[in-house]
Amino acid sequence: MNPPILPGRHVSFYESVLGFGAALLEYLSAPITMEDLWDQYQACCEDGTYPVRFSMDQFIQTLDFLYLIGAVRLSEGGLLCYDSHQP
Predict the structure, then answer these.
(1) How confident is the model at residue 73 (pLDDT cuts 50, 70, 90)?
(2) Structural domains of the chain, count
(3) Residue 32 covered by a domain
(4) DSSP element (H, E) containing 52
(5) Which residues are CB-contacts of 32 (< 8 A; sequence separation ≥ 6)?
(6) What is the span of the domain harbouring residue 27?
């Protein structure tokens, strides 16, 4: 089941793609591989820092969403980067 993009009456911010995407953006202070980003997220689930577990498919869906809205990009080396250049 895919998480909703926006939080709502029965969906907390952390359970939405928007909330999960915001959490992932916090890890993008430096370029990172998708695998390392996934590992950081998993570590946050393990220590209770992030309260919701998402599947790998939902992780990819959230990265797709961030790419579509222009929040992330891939570097020439294939690393995920926070894209601060807005048109």
Answers:
(1) very high
(2) 1
(3) yes
(4) none
(5) 40, 79, 80
(6) 13-82
